[in-house]
Amino acid sequence: MATAVSTSTTTPAEHEGAVEQITHLDPAQLVRDACNAREHDTEPDDKLITSVRELGVEEPISVRPKPDGTYGVFKGWRRAQAAQIANAAAEQEGRPLHMVKAFVRSDLVEKDGYTRFLSLVENDHRQEMDARDTLRAQELSLVGMDEVDQARAVKAMGLKRGAVKHLRTAQKLDDATLRQATAGGMDLEQTAQLTEVEEIPNATQRLLRALAKDQNEGRGGRGHWDQEFALLTEEQASTKAREDAKTALQESGVALLSSLSYEQRKSVRPLSDLTTGLGAPLTAENHHGCHGHCARLDEDNQPVWHCSEPAENGHKVRKQPKPRRSAEEEEQAAQKSAERARVVSCNRAWKAAAGPRQQFVTRLVKGKSLPDEARTFAQQVLLELPEFYGKWASKGDTADVARFLGAKEGEDTAAAELAAALPKAKLANVLFAQVAAAFEADIRDPKTYDMVRYRPAYLWEAPNPQQAAYLLLLEALGQADNGSYALSEVEDQAVTQHRPKTPDAA
User: Fold this and answer.
1) Less packed terminus of the chain by CB within 10 Å, N or C?
2) C-alpha to C-alpha distance for 76 and 40, rounded to whole angstroms
3) What is the mean pLDDT of residues 119-147?
């Protein structure tokens, strides 16, 4: 019962040969197209049904003809359903039935990917789709397209390289987290990254706060996001290392203190407090066969050996036990414990910050032209030949230089080969890559030694002026590059005393 009315505009450039023909169709002939992007909230609301009952469907829907004589609706399925409901009521009341204006797209038969893409665009411009529907429709659209259509669709949807992989990954989030990520402004790549660290408590909130910092700076960069994501990744790796250490102990037959009952833990003593019956020291080796052999893990995931039943196994407590600590000593012990936790946290953050920092250096080196500030900085270091540079050069390790110059992960490509292949105009880039590699080696380990006070120290407490200058240079270059890089919190803390004094500060 379809009646052709007129022909009108052509489709987008991807299908220039197609002609959209407006046809009046009986709503009874309409079914939902399998490539309709909307899978949730597909029912028409009362307001839409009332409007269609009175006025009919004003805006044409879009359909594909099916072999059985029906038409699959990929745009406007809610309007089509409203027309079906309105006609059912009209038939009962003896009123005239309404037809539906539709664009019949015969050119889209067997073009499921592009059909889904057009449906996605339609729904995205209308009532907001469910976030999961959007991701799934985008993924299925791109998978079903040829390379030409896919490239155009990716550009039209504002997606980036690797979109299909990110789309598939992002769908692993639960509905609540996915809605939170979408509402917070995460792009597709960031949503996919969230899935990698979401098991860490408050990961979503932490990343959203970092994203808000980037947005508030208004440069369009993601420096704060990269730093927070790197820190979460480091924390995740640390958690996994601890779980792996626990598993290794359990598989070797060693009980963990945390698995003991309350009664068993009452008598637990570290082996350092115990001796054999004859007064010999107890160690992990000579205590391993004891029924009470157990352990806990310290901050570095190393086992601290204990015995859960020292008296029953004939062990003796060492003479001259430590006297009970005073309130002052208890407070000092608590402060020491808190300081140790701070050191562990800052060391982890320092190591995590190396990832975004080195990625930024790689972008600088691989860029078309190196910023003048970076070129001048590299020249100054090479002319002054500071001690740390000489130490790095003497080791002959150019792996970081090769990576900065573009060596792929896992490839054993020499830095000299990569540098030789670059044009003369890239000489400054090569020099900066070499200087940056020397600095990265110098600041890789957060632990250092204070030669003035003759005690261990940490770079996040007091980097030397050269190290601080390197970090401040990268910060300035990142800000100039639309905020594509920002110092991490621990790096910012480290360089505070080295920042140029402003008039207000003076």
Assistant:
1) C
2) 14
3) 61
